Amino acid sequence: MENANGASRGVVPTEGELTAALQSLRSESPALGTPKVHALLLAQQPTWSVSEKRTRKVLQALGLVLSSGNSSSKPTGDRKYPASQLNPSLPLEQMTNAVKTKYFNDAKGKGLVATRKIEKGEVMWKEDPFALAAEWELYELQNKSLACFYCSTPMSHSSNAVLRCTSTSDSLACPATFCNRLCRSRAESLGGHSMLCPGANPASNELLAFVEKSQWQALHALSRCTARLVMRKKAAILKKGGQKERAEVGKAFEDDWAIYTALAVLSYEDRFKYAEEMGGEPDRAAWQKAHKLLVNAFDKERRKSNLAHDPVFDEELFSYEGFLRGLGRMSLNMESHGGIYAVHSHINHSCTPNTSVRHHDQSNALSRITVLASSDIEAGEELVITYVDPSLGVRERRKRLAEWGFGKCTCGRCMEEEKSLPPQIEPASGQPAAGPDMSDLSAEIKAGLGLL
């Protein structure tokens, strides 16, 4: 039977559950209108009671409703571009009054715009990472117990505040050391440390060894995100305490899940369709091995906490397709030093940036970023950073952006430099187009993994 709104009677999903499901559907079917998305939702979740009106309202809040006004900006043909959506639960106003989120269109996605005039040099906000895969020099220090495993700050063992992880399992001891009690507490409550602790979870050791050997930062970041999300989901399933405490635990998971699923995403398969055009070769055998190692690392916790009972969660984190989307999320959103940041991930690219990202707290919170204006920014103007080396020529900049599925950059600088470009020489008949120099074996392996 149906109610007055045409929705089947059944379980009413929470806002977080509905948001996650609709974000997943939209990323898989970006061209469908609201009625078809709603029909797909009910087909996937037959026990849910959701009206089309509620579906439309959530899609609108996420900036995911198609409109004719956006049609000229939408990607054309079969090519896929990174999918992006807003996170309605993002606590941006608690961090800054200088910027707000904005959904531009289906091609460009989301971004940040100034709410007022911002002076050059002004600090707009500071932000700690949602997850951190420390760059390799720091990761080596972490594994030698010479840098904090939570905030990545190098440290001296002469400090009385330094604390070690005490977990051991047979011959496996955890190398993690923390700046102080706060970092150790946050490593578990926010980072899910025990999920990737060789002592507490020996099954993770093979995954971490593979990460370090391959120096695959996207896989490392995805492993850290997965640890945090599994820890939050486990706590939400095993809710303890009073009603208030249980509600807080549930909300903590929903907020984290909203951050993860709102990250811009382009599956590794879709990305490499275009990398192959430029000479890159995807290493699918390595992808499959990495997926198996990640699933094995969390398998015990998945079974013990019945995580598979939430099909949306389990599919997005542990299916092979979800894993490839996860790798794409990490590669597209990772800050240059290895952090995934909820607000920073909104900033779009321009070859003439007006925003700078720095690590100023080097003595006590190295992973914390400080976002400041590198030029005056007017109210309503978009905040932009550069994703590529700005000293490169326009063709090389565009090539590097295209490798990540961003399409042709049409910023003011690119359009101006394009005017003075000499015509490109087409390859002679029967000759292959020039591709990147892959003579260096290390570079070839990294390109196949998606490290470049």
TrEMBL record:
What is one Pfam family matched by this protein? Answer: SET
Which reaction(s) does its UniProt entry say it catalyses? L-lysyl-[histone] + S-adenosyl-L-methionine = N(6)-methyl-L-lysyl-[histone] + S-adenosyl-L-homocysteine + H(+)
Q: Which residues form the SET domain?
A: 97-388
- Which key words tag this protein in UniProt? Methyltransferase, S-adenosyl-L-methionine, Transferase
From the UniProt record, give one GO term of the biological process aspect. Answer: methylation
Q: Per its UniProt entry, which superkingdom is the organism in?
A: Eukaryota
What Gene3D superfamilies does the record point to? 1.10.220.160, 6.10.140.2220, SET domain
**Which is one GO molecular function term here?**
histone H4K20 methyltransferase activity
Region Disordered, as annotated, extends over: 68-88
Could you identify this protein by its name?
A: Histone-lysine N-methyltransferase SET5
